[in-house]
Every structure is written in structure tokens, then in C-alpha cells.
Amino acid sequence: MECCIVVFDIQTDPENTDYELEAGATRNFEAARTAEKMALQEQKEKEAEEANNPMKVKTIFTHNLCSVH
Fold first, then answer.
1. Strands (E), the chain
2. pTM (predicted TM-score)
3. Measured between alpha carbons, how far is 9 from 21 in angstroms, rounded to an integer?
4. DSSP character at residue 15
């Protein structure tokens, strides 16, 4: 019988329910995690563009129809 010893380091990230592999292993591709990160990044970029582009700022105009003359 042959024994195989494998050592790998993992740093946990409880705040983001994630982990980082520091040494001795590689992470499998996770399509759902990648898609979620891309969607979040796109949303942040869109919000930043709307906040910084005066042509995209939504303005609400109100009229006082009850004014007395």
C-alpha cells in the first residue's frame, strides 16, 4: 500500500462565504460565481456612469397646479 501526502493552504473568507487557495491546489471554474461578479461590476459601472454623466441624470420636474393668482 502506498501513501500519498498532499498539503495545501486555504484562507477562508466568511464575510463573502468564499475561500482563497494559497498553495498546493487550484480552484475549479465556477460559472455562477463569475457571472454574478460580472453582473455586479456592470451594475456598478452603469451607476457610476449615470452619476457622472449630466446627460443621463434623470430630473423630475413638478408643477404646482394649485397656485393662487
1. 9-13, 18-23
2. 0.42
3. 6
4. G
